[in-house]
Automatic annotation (TrEMBL):
Record domain YrdC-like: where: 14-201
Annotated positions binding ATP: 63, 119, 143, 145, 153, 197, 235
Protein name per the record: Threonylcarbamoyl-AMP synthase
Record: residues binding L-threonine: 36, 59, 68, 123, 183
Family recorded in the similarity comment: Belongs to the SUA5 family.
NCBIfam families to which the protein is assigned, alphabetical: L-threonylcarbamoyladenylate synthase (TIGR00057)
Entry function: Required for the formation of a threonylcarbamoyl group on adenosine at position 37 (t(6)A37) in tRNAs that read codons beginning with adenine.
Length: 326
């Protein structure tokens, strides 16, 4: 893993969003909140800044990054939008959707941020602080989730400090993010529309707006991920994760959803994603709950069954990766 030099990591308040943007424009690494998770920003047009970002995360450099921009017209200068991409951008931006489209000829995003691909991932976030940062930066900002590579994504500034203090220049603290799972990634090219990663916009919402089903599913194809870097083992807590647990075994912590499963009273720790079984609430709580359970040092984390409709698809995807063999 590449070493990044020690940096003093400043905590910025919401009123400092313009400072965060100016630091990014100067080639520094700044984490900021989006409505999904905290992103670790770098100037996408500056290959040096992007190289620093990969080093700070300890991320394999073949993994391309999402470029964040303030508006759909900005995005349309960087990528070529077909009819499907336009419909989706119109319906869901700003918001938790990333579109992968062919890159324009004179696109200033560095090859390193795109991992040399002919396509580009673009997102217009809705979080007011993210929007203020992007407006102040005045250029596309590459921003993967602000965690060390392979770790659970951060939904608070404290999570970012836990993983990246000393490795990045600043964290803009905007409190807890409200969606809680990353953006849905949809690829639009060659007349097809494919979901590359389930996320904050559900499959049903996408299909309703498109007026047709999505094309062939690649989100589950771990052997040949269309989104490079969708490694099967990802979002990994230190403790092993056991899915669809209908009881808690000795030494296990419980990640509950709805009513508690048998044995919950003897669990080493319990977090309930949503006592009422609300998938939106569960998504918002997911990563913080995983971090808290992991900190309790259990033999394993037992995860109660979670339905796969709506945001459940994204929640189950993250948990399946957390449970995958490392
Ligand atoms: O919600 C989010 O999307 C967060 C916030 C910070 O915006 N960002 C995020 O970025 O999750 P990251 O880097 O953790 O995930 C980016 C994903 C990776 O799986 C990558 O492989 C995929 O996007 N990706 C990027 N460019 C791509 C491309 N040209 N084709 C296919 N997949 C691409
Ligand atoms: Mg990530």
């Amino acid at each position: 893993e590449a070493q990044s030099g020690f940096r003093r990591t400043a905590r910025l308040a919401p009123a400092d969003a313009a400072t965060a943007g100016a630091l990014l424009a100067a080639g520094r690494l700044v984490a900021f909140p989006t409505e999904t998770v905290y992103g670790l920003g770098a100037d996408a047009t500056d290959a040096g800044a992007v190289a620093d970002l990969y080093a700070a995360k300890g991320r394999p450099a073949f993994n391309p990054l999402i470029s964040h921009v303030p508006s759909a017209p900005d995005a349309m200068r960087l990528g070529r939008f077909d009819a499907h991409a336009r419909v989706l951008a119109e319906a869901f931006w700003p918001g938790p959707l990333t579109l992968v489209v062919p890159v324009t000829e004179d696109c200033p995003v560095s090859d390193l941020a795109r991992a040399g691909l002919a396509t580009l991932a673009l997102r217009v976030p809705a979080h007011p602080l993210a929007r203020a940062v992007l407006a102040a930066a005045g250029r596309p900002i590459a921003a993967p989730s602000a965690n060390r590579s392979g770790r659970v994504s951060p939904t608070t500034a404290a999570h970012v400090f836990d993983d990246l203090a000393g490795r990045i220049d600043a964290v803009l603290d905007g409190g807890a993010t409200h969606v809680g799972v990353e953006s849905t990634i949809v690829a639009c090219f060659g007349a097809e529309v494919r979901m590359l990663r389930p996320g904050g916009v559900s499959r049903a919402e996408l299909e309703r707006v498109l007026g047709r089903p999505l094309d062939g599913d690649v989100a589950d194809d771990a052997a040949r991920p269309l989104a490079p870097g969708r490694l099967l083992s990802h979002y990994a807590p230190a403790a092993p994760v056991r899915l669809d647990a209908t009881e808690v075994r000795p030494g296990e912590a419980l990640l509950a959803f709805g009513p508690l499963v048998p044995g919950a009273e003897s669990a080493t720790a319990v977090e309930n994603l949503s006592p009422t079984g609300d998938l939106r609430e569960a998504a918002a709580n997911l990563f913080a709950a995983l971090r808290r359970l992991d900190a309790a040092g259990p033999a394993a984390i037992a995860v109660a069954p979670i339905p796969s409709d709506g945001l459940g698809e994204a929640i189950r995807d993250r948990l399946e990766r957390a449970a995958a063999p490392r």
